[in-house]
Please model this.
Amino acid sequence: MNVIKTMKPGQTGANRFLRKYGKQLVAVRYRRKPNDNKTYTTVEIIVDEREYAGKGLSILATHTDKRRQSVAIPIAFEEFQLRQQAKQIGAQWSKKHKVWVLLYHQAVELGLIHRQRPDLMAMIDDVVIYG
Model:
C-alpha cells in the first residue's frame, strides 16, 4: 500500500481520531493499493511508554533507582482501607501537604502511582523522606 497523505493530530482529517485516541495519537495516514478503488485510513498511536536509561546506564539501574524514590500520594479520608494499607507498608502522613509519602514501588503495588504529586515532593519537609 502506498501512503498518499499523512496528517498530524489537529490537522483537518485527523480531528475525529484525535477525539478518539487523544494524546496517544501520533499520525493519521491515508493509503491506497495499486489497482484498487479503495482508500484505507490508518492511525499511529502510542501504546506503551518506557524510560530510556541513556548512554552508559543500564535500564535496570534506572528502574532500581526509581523504585527507591519517595512519592507523594493523596488518599482521601473516606478511603479507610487504602489508608490502612499505606500505613501497614510504612507510608508517612504529611500534615502540611495532606499526602502520604511512600516508595515508588509501593505506590505501584497499591495501584496508586497514577495519583502521585511530583510537584509536592520537593516541598515536603514535615516527614522523614526515605529512599
Remarks:
- DSSP finds five helices and six strands in the chain.
- The CA atoms of residues 27 and 49 lie 17 Å apart.
- Helices lie at 15-21, 59-67, 80-88, 104-109, 118-121.
- The beta strands are 2-7, 25-32, 39-45, 70-73, 92-94, 99-103.
